[in-house]
Structures are given as C-alpha cells and as structure tokens.
User: Fold this.
Amino acid sequence: MSEQKNHNDWSIAKAVEYYNIDGWGAGYFGVNNKGHLCVWPYGQPGPSIDMLDVIDEIHDKKLSLPCVVRFQDILRSRVQTLNQTFAKHISEMDYTGKYFGVYPIKVNQMREVVEEILDAGRDSHFGLEAGSKGELLPVLAYNDDPEALTICNGYKDEDFMRLAMLGRKLGRRVIVVIEKLSELPLLLRVAEEMQVEPLIGFRAKLSTPGAGKWVSSSGDFAKFGLTAPEIIEAVKILKDRGKEDALKLFHFHAGSQLTDIRSIKEAVKEGARIYAKLRKMGFNIEFFDVGGGLGVDYEGSNTTSHSSVNYTLDEYASDVVHNIQQICKDEGVAEPHIVSESGRAITAHHSCVIMSVFGSIQLGEDENQLNGTDTEVVLKMREVVAGLTPKNLQETFHDATALKEEALSMFKLGILGLEERAKIESLYWKLCRQIVQINSRRKRVPKDTAHLEVLIADQYLANFSLFQSAPDHWAFEQLFPVVPLERLDEQPLRESTIVDITCDSDGKIDQFIDQVTPRSTLALHELRPGESYHVGMFLLGAYQDIMGDMHNLFGRVNEVHVFCDDEDPEDFYLEEVIPGDNIADVLCRLQYFPSELVKTVKKSVDERIKSGAIKPKEGMTLIEFYEQVIKSYTYLETGRPRQTNLEIPAESLSNGLSSVELLRAR
Ligand SMILES: *Cc1c(COP(=O)(O)O)cnc(C)c1O
Assistant:
C-alpha cells in the first residue's frame, strides 16, 4: 500500500498478479503486450479481443460509456464446459444416468442470453427453468426441444399450472415442481381438466444448511419445498389417485453461491437418501435435480469467503456424480439422470461494464503553496506534524485532531481566515498520509488510525451508477473485480477508491478483491491531462444487469399512497394509484415481443392440431389463454377464491435475492 514503490520492477506479469486476473478470470481474461486488458472468449489458447478495440468500436457506433459489454462466446463456452465436465465424470465413473442441465432464466432473462445458452446446449438437450408465470411464457416459446427439460419452480397459482400443462400439450418435457403441498391437488385437478398427463417433481427442504450468503433458501425454515412429513403426505395423495407414474423428478436447492464444497456434498447425500427411499416406495423417479448453487470465484481467492468458492467446476461435478452413485449403490436403487440448475456459473463471466474515469479528487494542497500568514495555531500545527515518529503516532494524531477542531471553532467565530483554515487542513491531511505510510509497514494498525487509509485515498470519479450496474455490490457488499483496461504495463501509483456519478453516498467502491482479504483501496494510474482512462467491472452477467426490479420478471409493483383522513369512514384515502407492470411491459423491456411470442406458440399449437394431437377448438382456447396471461399483472393472482390455499402475500414472493426490497428501501 505504500506510495514508495519501485518503478523498475513493474511488469505485465505484476499487473496480472496485482489485480488477481488469473484468480477470477477463469482463463477468459488477461493482459496483452500493449498493456491492455484482453478477453479470450473461448479460453486460452484461442482468439483474443483487446478491450480498447471494443471501446473504439463503441465510439464508432456513436455510443457513449458507460456500456455493458457482453461476450456471447463466453456464454457458449460456459455452457459447453458445464456439459462436458459432467459428461466426463459420468463416463469415468460408469454412471448409468445422463446429465440434463437447465438454465434458470431469472439469473439473466435477456432474450439474447437465453437464446445463446439454448443454442450452445442443443446437443446436450440443455433446458430452461422458470420460477414464475412471466418466465414460463418465454420459456415455452423458446425451449422447443422435446427432450430438454422445462422445470417450473416457485409458488404456483392456477394460471401457472395451466401454462405448464399447455407445454405438455405441445409435447414438451415440462416438470412442475411441488414447492408447497397444496399445489399438488391443484395440479392434478388442472391436468385432469385439460386431459393431459402431468410430470411432477418434489422439492425437498433439506436439513443440511448451505454455506454462503444466500443460505436462507435452504434448511428447515426455508420458504420453498416439502418437509419430510409433507413428502409422506404427497406420496399418499399420488398413491390414492393412482398417479405414482407422474412423479419424475426429485429436487432441492441449497442456496446460491455455495462457498463450501462440503455443504454441497452433504446436501447431495441427504437428497440422494430421500430419492432412494422414494424409489423404494415404488416411484420410478428419473431425474435427480441438485438445484443451483454452483458458485463463482469473484475474488479469485479460492476460499469460503462470500465472494469466493473453495472448489472448481470439475470438483463440483465429480462430487455430485460420485455421491449420488455411492448412495444409490448403498441403497440398491437405479442411478437417476442428473439435473443442475446452474445459473450464476453459466452467466457471470460473460458480461462486464466499461466506464471512463473523468477526474480524481485528492485531499489537501501543499500548505506552502497557500497564501496567508502562519498564525499561532498554524505554527502549532506545523510543530505537531513535524514531530511525528512511529512511536508517538497515536498521540500526534490526537493532538492534531484537537488542533484542527480548535481552528475550526476559531474560524466560526471569525478570528481565523479561510486561507489559514486551509493551511491547517492541508497540514492535517499531510499528517494523515504520513501516518498511513507508517501503518502500511506495520502488522497491526492502531484502531484510531485504521480508517485513514480510505479517508486519504484519492477518489476517482467514474461515469457509471453502481446501483444500476452492480446492485449486489451496493446491497450485499458482494465484490466484483475492478481493473484498469489500459496502461497495465505501467505501475499504478495512486491508492484510490472509485465513486460514481449518482448523488448517492453509497455510490462508491471502497472494497476491492485481493488474493486474501478484501482491501479498501485499489492502485490506479495517475490521470494524464487530456488523456482518457478506462476501468472495467467484471463478472456482472449473473443477477446484476437485470435490475432488481426485474427479478423473476415480476416487474414494478402496483403502488398506492395512503393518506389518513379523520372524516373518511375508514380513516384514510388513497391519494395516488400507480399501476405496476403487466407481463407484456416487462417482456418488452427485455426484447421479447408479445406478438412474436404468441406467433411462435400458435405455430406449435397449429402443428399439434394438424397432427391430430389436439382439437382445433381446444387449440384456440389455449392460445387465447396464453395471450390473456401476457396481458395480466406479473404477480400471483391471490384474490380468486379457488386459490385461497395460497395465503402468502404476493410481495413476499420475490424469492431469495431480496435485493429488490433492499434497493427499494432506499
Ligand atoms: C436462483 C435459483 C437457481 C439458480 O442458482 P445459481 O446459484 O445462480 O445457479 C436455481 N434453482 C432455484 C430453485 C433458484 O431459486
């Protein structure tokens, strides 16, 4: 952290090390011999893209920064790597099931992202997961491979069930996961009414706690899933109705960004036991779905810190396959196909945001450059600052702080001039800088002065909004790698924090990744007058570039402003009613056009009519219904009496990432 670095021993290799690019880059990022950050979209060796060329291209297209940059090929590479890794371990262990990945679209719902993933995974029958009605609409339109899975998670109302059964009518492998016992009779009734065979999954609440920041989606108190007694009850319902064959999938989800491989193994073991017991009760479950949770090493520290993971994709796949196999062997049951709902691990790497730094703020001036006389208090301050030694550091700091306060009181009383005040402050900041230098050579830093490092760091002003681009940094202190895109062959000498252009005091990055523990400043290059300087923030492809509001395609919530009124019989009135988004609004924002979606689904229905699988009249009803849901509100319809078993208020259904609430609370 010291400012006195040796200029001569800097190199590109040093830059790669300092910004820990190999740690978080997963082979996709590096520095070229021009000292520019570059991307290998297929990993190394392979073609590479210079980020500065990308910036030139952006300017050529008359676009301004900040700009989100997506590397579609990284997406493809992630999907292929995931499929190949599971396939490799399945083959090496002579496992008899196959791997069927599904992509949970809530992680990044952009049409271009979903299309790319499906296309890259076509050979492996990669499927999609939907957690809401809004998500199921595009999923039904896009996932048209009859072998690929469509998994429906999340709480479901009747429309959600009907949409899923519409998918069955189209001959798709749509599996409805029962998250809550009351969904089972509802599904069976809807399926019977629509005369279609449902494919059912059970989601279990495991007792194994996940490890990581989003663990609340697992454990006995999780919102979703069936407890052991509920599973027994669900089994009874299926048996009573003779629907044993409909149960096709067993599922659990231990949370996102699981940082510790041990908790993954434990969850798989517990889940596999439940699967085995269900098989022994006579259910021919084909799929074992381990949910999401495959993490990303944002820090590159390979630890269980919440922005890191202590395992690789290879280890993950190997442990999942191995543990399922062991338990199936032990219990003497068939090995199921393996499903994972890995979203973060597929999308995180493919997108970043590029911003330009347009200025910096440094505290204080050289006090000798300032006019004004050395009055008594200034002289005293000079004396205190001059007397600093490592031994009297604390004492000197306290004395100087007291003097600064005294000077401020004098200023308020009108007996100290502005220039004298400036001298006092500049001397004070000079002292702080010297203290930080002394501290940087120490193992243990005195508490009083520990905060000075951030306080005196330069502030680099970057043209972006942290809230907009990296809501999880903003809301959860999740770390994302930040790296200059140029001059990486030069030593960065300014210890800095980065502030954005919003008037928001939280629009500031003062936690940066490091090999071990996060640091509070990042070394950047001295700005040169008239020269541009660019910084990138990376690994933003999962959960970030769709705004918190768009989570699960719920969109904006309806809003009312309530005012108390004594004269009103109910003591209040509504001043303002602001309608929320309907599903079509939200879909359009993500470039899905309702008319296109209807056309695509209609085409599939027409084909089914032609082949005699469904009657024309029924086909028309299905289309009308699809259109009607598109026009409806994004949240669950809880008002209808038929669905009184859904007693959860709609606003609590936004699922694990409560970034929505956190963001909105501002
Ligand atoms: C969010 C979620 C996922 C995706 O998890 P990742 O950790 O991003 O892979 C998968 N399944 C369910 C049920 C989820 O809620």
Remarks:
- The radius of gyration is 29 Å.
